[in-house]
Amino acid sequence: MELLKQRILKDGQVIGNDILKVDSFLNHQMDVQLFNEMGKEFYRLFAHKKVTKILTIESSGIGIACIAAQYFNVPVVFAKKTEARNLDADTYLAEVYSFTKGKTYNVRVSKKYINSRDVVLIIDDFLANGKAALGLADIAEQAGAEVAGIGIAIEKGFQNGGRLLRERGLEVQSLAIVEGMQDGVITFR
Amino acid sequence: MELLKQRILKDGQVIGNDILKVDSFLNHQMDVQLFNEMGKEFYRLFAHKKVTKILTIESSGIGIACIAAQYFNVPVVFAKKTEARNLDADTYLAEVYSFTKGKTYNVRVSKKYINSRDVVLIIDDFLANGKAALGLADIAEQAGAEVAGIGIAIEKGFQNGGRLLRERGLEVQSLAIVEGMQDGVITFR
């Protein structure tokens, strides 16, 4: 998606060889106009799949998922990272390793909100090692739901998450795939 | 807001005397159509304040804030609860006590994304003891920004957050104020 790539080139910051900071428009400050263009693009890519629900993970995926959901006209469910007092006891559980936080944690979705009649589109802001998306796909499969695919804003093509997910037969559509960030220069696939 | 009140009566679950579960439409599964009606209402209430930025806190506020931001045509900034490796070192910091999680934690906003020219509308899903909203107002004030007001989906009128914020001179607009939940019966102010 050209608009997103241009925005990454304009406002993205490379730190070292593996961190791409896009927090001025994607995952701290959020440019909702850009999110709308991304939502339209996800709809163009996945409209034929008859999606019934969008599944994401707190926190950075929620904004993109909600804006995209307006085009699909379906609810969003976000997997929770913490055990809040008001979360149902009866949940689907997956283990996820966070690249940015350097730790493993459990994510949970109440069994009430995904079921075997659902066609689930997974949306997230980043795809790096693929652990978050795999955890969400795992939860959808535990529920007996069909996974329509995985819609990602920015994929780090030099990490192995995209390959892992595609090898598992999942349709991954990334709006921008960063192939390299050598010496602070971002190149796209 | 009648539509939200009716939805709370239809789908809200009261647990004990103080927990109101609305996770089927507000903060786990999210009804984005309802969020759009809420966003329009926040715009009606705060349009005259010339808002330049919406400030919320991860995670449940993000969806509502992003949908509302479309009416205001401004970016959303969400305060982060954790120290991610990719968060700026230079942040505004506030301490927040979470009622649902039973603990105190720090929230941070990068100094890049709020400044003294901003007119900040704070949006969150719940107002109970008011600690999250106070923390966000504190961050806006540290930045020298003007606080346009606080837009809340559901205020628990029987807890003291709303009173604390209003006594501090902040304009609080809650789309539904729950006055009581005795014996599982929800009453509104």
Automatic annotation (TrEMBL), chains A, B:
Which residue ranges does the record assign to the Phosphoribosyltransferase domain? 23-157
- Database matches in CDD domains: PRTases_typeI
User: According to its UniProt record, in which pathway does this protein act?
Assistant: Purine metabolism; XMP biosynthesis via salvage pathway; XMP from xanthine: step 1/1
Q: Tell whether Cytoplasm is among the UniProt keywords.
A: yes
Top-rank taxon of the source lineage equals Bacteria
Q: Which residues bind 5-phospho-alpha-D-ribose 1-diphosphate?
A: A128, N129, G130, K131, A132
Q: Which residues bind xanthine?
A: L20, N27, K156
Q: Which InterPro entries match?
A: PRTase-like, PRTase_dom, Pur/Pyrimidine_PRTase, Xanthine_PRibTrfase
- Gene Ontology MF terms: xanthine phosphoribosyltransferase activity
Q: Provide the reaction this enzyme catalyses.
A: XMP + diphosphate = xanthine + 5-phospho-alpha-D-ribose 1-diphosphate
Q: Which GO terms describe its biological process?
A: purine ribonucleoside salvage; xanthine metabolic process; XMP salvage
Localisation: Cytoplasm
According to its UniProt entry, the function of this protein is described as: Converts the preformed base xanthine, a product of nucleic acid breakdown, to xanthosine 5'-monophosphate (XMP), so it can be reused for RNA or DNA synthesis.
What family does this belong to?
Answer: Belongs to the purine/pyrimidine phosphoribosyltransferase family. Xpt subfamily.
- Check the record and name the PANTHER family matching this protein: HYPOXANTHINE/GUANINE PHOSPHORIBOSYLTRANSFERASE, XANTHINE PHOSPHORIBOSYLTRANSFERASE
Record note on quaternary structure: Homodimer.
Please state what the protein is called: Xanthine phosphoribosyltransferase
**Organism annotation:** Ruminiclostridium hungatei (Clostridium hungatei)
Q: What is the lineage of its organism?
A: Bacteria, Bacillati, Bacillota, Clostridia, Eubacteriales
The coding gene here is xpt
